[in-house]
């Protein structure tokens, strides 16, 4: 077989030539004297047409095939305007590489809606669907685009530990693990390590990070294992420097998606608007004023899902920052400014997709804040040590990859944007 050309992505220059294709049998139609296979691979679909009296042995094989079996076929690439991609393969050879069992746990091409749990239970099949693959192709572009943008802005990609002894994000729970008889935790975010990195002189770093959070709530926008673009930068004047990187990053990534994923956007039936810079900035105080008029909300309260949606409608922009949060709503490491923190959230269509801040870089101030919050300072020895021998002013943010995709692609459920979601009920597959 011509194993060098295993793709259904065939151009006109191949018409009339011998080609080989391989993939999954999406559909088989046997009309008695003629049989058709709709073959699917990562590039698309193609038709294989077999006339019984011309090659009875291949016709036999085709009629014995089950849907979703994997085959390869070689033969003439024949131009045919009646076929959807303008050509069909007239097979001379066909090999069944893997026969699929029947019945399938779920359909691929069926119009009937499969419920989400069945899809996730059979994720390897679900991922064969064009719509689902489109999400992950866009995810790939997003991460590649973010890496390119950050790299060209002087950020170094790093990988920090995911097993640790101290937890940064108060308020969210940690997963405890047994580390050779000692208590350890899965990290909730690379926060502490990326700050430690600021004491090394590698003063712009980013990580495609894993977050592990033992949050009890089971919602359409939370995962217990999620990923983020996390960055930290030193020698900033204020959190504004961090926000500027954040908005440019978002814009540049969206431009790349529009450029490279036209096909996928069409499959998902979404349009992307490239936002104007700078993004609107609204202060927490302004947000509080909006909310006090509409719901039971007091200055100092956290923004819940409903509050975020109301603010989203009022601000009426695709992307906007909420700035100057009350100090008490933000973690210990956020830089205080009176009763406020130099912290911000970035929202997309009324959902938080990123949080960031200027951090405290002064050792005594940091320890003071931790004590004020009743934290056990000894648990953070190794982190605090990095602040004692020269730590520049710094700040950063974490941008949830699944949150971003879910909002931008209007998917409605965050589980759509991660291969094998982990939530309160689901730990497999
Ligand atoms: O807002 P979070 O908790 O902030 C931090 O972790 C800080 N250390 C970031 C910083 O640099 N200051 O998380 C950052 C983002 C959220 O805005 C959200 O997009 C995503 O990570 N995220 C989650 N996504 C899905 N499921 C969860 N349980 C998430 N928790 C956070
Ligand atoms: Mg947050």
Please characterize this protein's 3D structure.
- This protein has helices at residues 56-64, 116-121, 123-126, 130-152, 191-197, 239-260, 262-268, 284-294, 305-315, 363-372, 381-385, 401-408, and strands at 18-30, 34-41, 44-51, 70-79, 87-98, 156-157, 163-164, 176-179, 182-186, 204-212, 225-234, 280-283, 319-326, 336-337, 340-348, 351-358, 394-400.
- By secondary structure, the chain is α+β, with helices and mostly antiparallel strands.
- A hairpin with a 2-residue loop joins strand 8 (176-179) and strand 9 (182-186).
- The radius of gyration is 27 Å and the shape is elongated.
- The two termini are 35 Å apart.
- The mean pLDDT is 95.
- The protein binds 4-amino-1,4-dioxobutan-2-aminium adenosine-5'-monophosphate and magnesium ion.
Tally of alpha and pi helices: 12
**Cα Rg:** 27 Å
Q: Estimate what percentage of residues fall within beta strands.
A: 25-35%
Characterize the biggest β-sheet.
9 strands, mixed
Bound molecules: 4-amino-1,4-dioxobutan-2-aminium adenosine-5'-monophosphate, magnesium ion
Shape: elongated
Structural class: alpha+beta
- Kindly report how far apart the N and C termini lie: 35 Å
Q: Please mark out the parts with pLDDT under 50 across 5 or more consecutive residues, or reply none.
A: none
SSE ordering: EEEHEEHHHEEEEHEEHHEHHEEEEHHEH
Q: How many β-strand stretches?
A: 17
Give average pLDDT, whole number.
95
* Overall helicity: 25-40%
Write a brief structural summary.
The protein is an alpha+beta fold and 429 residues long. It is built from 12 helices and 17 strands. Strands 6, 10, 11, 12, 13, 14, 15, 16 and 17 form a 9-stranded mixed sheet that branches.
């Amino acid at each position: 077989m011509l194993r060098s050309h295993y793709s259904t992505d065939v151009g006109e220059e191949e018409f009339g030539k011998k080609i080989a294709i391989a993939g999954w049998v999406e559909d088989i139609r046997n009309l008695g004297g003629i049989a058709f296979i709709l073959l699917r691979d990562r590039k698309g679909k193609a038709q294989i047409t077999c006339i019984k009296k011309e090659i009875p042995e291949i016709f036999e094989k085709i009629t014995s095939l089950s849907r979703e079996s994997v085959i390869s076929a070689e033969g003439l690439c024949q131009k045919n305007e009646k076929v959807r991609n303008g050509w069909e393969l007239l097979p001379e050879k066909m090999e069944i590489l893997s026969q699929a069992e029947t019945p399938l746990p779920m359909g691929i091409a069926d119009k009937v809606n499969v419920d989400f749990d069945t899809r996730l239970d059979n994720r390897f099949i679900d991922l064969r669907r064009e719509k689902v693959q489109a999400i992950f192709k866009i995810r790939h572009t997003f991460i590649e685009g973010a890496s390119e943008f950050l790299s060209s802005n002087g950020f170094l990609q790093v990988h920090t530990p995911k097993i640790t002894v101290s937890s940064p994000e108060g308020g969210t729970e940690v997963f405890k693990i047994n580390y050779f008889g000692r208590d350890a935790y899965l990290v909730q975010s690379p926060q502490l390590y990326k700050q430690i990195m600021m004491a090394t002189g590698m003063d712009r770093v980013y990580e495609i990070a894993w977050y592990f959070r033992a949050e009890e709530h089971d919602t359409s926008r939370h995962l217990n294992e999620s990923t983020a673009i996390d960055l930290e930068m030193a020698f900033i004047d204020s959190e504004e420097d961090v926000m500027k990187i954040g908005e440019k990053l978002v814009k540049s990534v969206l431009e790349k998606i529009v450029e490279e994923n036209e096909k996928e956007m069409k499959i998902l039936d979404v349009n992307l608007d490239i936002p104007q810079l700078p993004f609107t900035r609204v202060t927490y105080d302004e947000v509080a004023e909006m909310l006090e008029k509409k719901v039971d909300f007091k200055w100092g309260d956290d923004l819940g899902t409903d509050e975020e949606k109301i603010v989203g409608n009022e601000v009426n922009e695709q992307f906007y920052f909420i700035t100057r949060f009350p100090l008490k709503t933000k973690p210990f490491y956020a830089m205080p400014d009176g009763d406020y923190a130099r912290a911000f959230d970035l929202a997309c269509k009324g959902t938080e997709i990123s949080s960031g801040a200027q951090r405290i870089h002064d050792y005594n101030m940091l320890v003071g804040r931790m004590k004020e919050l009743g934290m056990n300072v000894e648990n953070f020895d190794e982190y605090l040590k990095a602040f004692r021998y020269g730590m520049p002013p710094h700040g950063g943010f974490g941008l949830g990859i699944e949150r971003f995709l879910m909002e931008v692609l209007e998917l409605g459920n965050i589980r759509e944007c991660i291969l094998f979601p982990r939530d309160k009920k689901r730990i497999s597959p």
